[in-house]
Amino acid sequence: MNQATFLATLAGRPPTAVLRLPANQVGRDFVIGDIHGAFDVVYEALALVEFDPRTDRLFCVGDLVDRGPQSDHCREFLAQDCVHAIRGNHEQVLLNLHAHGKPSRDALLAALSRYEGEWWLELALPDREALLSALRCLPVAIEVETETGLIAMVHGDVPSGMSWPDFCADLEVGRLSTVITALEGRDRLKTQDCSGVAGVKRLFVGHTTVAGGPRVLGNVWAIDTGAVLAQKRGSPAYAATLLELTATEADLQNSRLSGTGRRTRLVERTASTHLHQEQRGPVIAMRA
Prior knowledge:
There is one protein chain. This protein has helices at residues 3-6, 39-48, 74-78, 89-97, 105-114, 125-136, 164-173, 176-184, 187-191, 227-233; strands at residues 18-21, 29-32, 57-60, 83-85, 141-146, 149-154, 202-205, 215-217, 220-222, 240-244, 257-258, 282-286. By secondary structure, the protein is of the alpha/beta class. Strands 1-5-6-7-9-8 form a six-stranded mixed sheet. Strands 4-3-2-10-12-11 form a six-stranded mixed sheet. The longest helix is centred in the middle third of the chain and has 12 residues, at 125-136. It is globular, with a radius of gyration of 18 Å. Mean pLDDT is 83; it is low at 1-9 and 255-288.
């Protein structure tokens, strides 16, 4: 798919390309890797860290939908005040498909097949429109003030050698090549580039699945560790990774935990959720 096709008009261009948030003065901030419809795994991870939606915040690095069995829960998930997500390439594909109204059936089926998005066909038209409206509001990047410095998130990557302030400036004017890298870049992971990104304390990325736990390359943390693969395959190589924004590399040595609980909404206190170790794939969930 060429650049012009992928982002012909940056379909669903967000009202805020870069969401900037102040430090959380009353609770904790967590970030989770690509969800891909594995929302039960998300709720399990939140239970493990006793997430409190009244004071804590949850950040998501994009690709909330496709592949997993609960992609239709996405709108409900995004509607919760404690959730802050960025758009990934899977969300962008849906927006592009509907940029000019209802897509042709052939175009829709081809895209859904490629991105494992057949769940979309099961949604009623009002639910589709509501979800598209929610996805259009997702920023391309988020930055958060913390006690240790500025921490940022983007789904794909920052172009090699580009600073975070320059990257954000490009996103805000809609520079096509930079937006595409933000949504689907993976060169840093492919080349194991440890040069990092200047102008930010830490950058969390998703998009590129890494087995065996998060990958740290300079100040870039790759945290798409295959939540949906853990759910669908039960493979010990994959997990959902949930970290506090200020976690240290030493924290990554914490035990990998596995199990699942009943689906617990973020609006409820999750500490009492009972976990059944034998039923689901692994979760890496840790507090700093």
